[in-house]
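Treating backbone geometry as a discrete language has practical consequences that deserve illustration. In the encoding step, the backbone of a single protein was reduced to a row of integers, each denoting a local shape. The amino acid sequence and the backbone structure tokens for this protein are reproduced below.
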Amino acid sequence: MTHTLRSRWIAGPAAGQPGPLLAALTDFCMHRLIDLPGIARRGRSLSRLWPSLPGAVGMWLWVDLAGRRCGSLSVWCGEDDLRAFVRVPEHVRIVREYRHRGTLRSHTWQIDGLDRAALWRAHTP
């Protein structure tokens, strides 16, 4: 991928939490680029909840226009915190609205601590 745009780092209430931590990459490939504005609006809206999500360390939203892809790279205190976020009603509504408009891939892995620059470099979508 050559031109991935990303948001600023959005710190969560668990910012500064020492490791080990859980990193999560979501990658949604849209069937049609015309869906991007709605997806981006909904993603930004959801990111406003970030400062109040238990166990949220921080995250970026990202987009690759040429590849018709967008998603997030997030860091959590643990698996339970990520699972709680997935069940947040606003997140559930977005997934239901857009799940048939593309293909979602996600991946999680443990990290010893948070080095944002290294995390982005190693896992740039």
Notes: The longest strand covers residues 21-30. The mean pLDDT is 91. The beta strands are 5-6, 10-11, 21-30, 56-64, 69-76, 102-111. Helices lie at 36-47, 79-86, 89-98, 116-122.
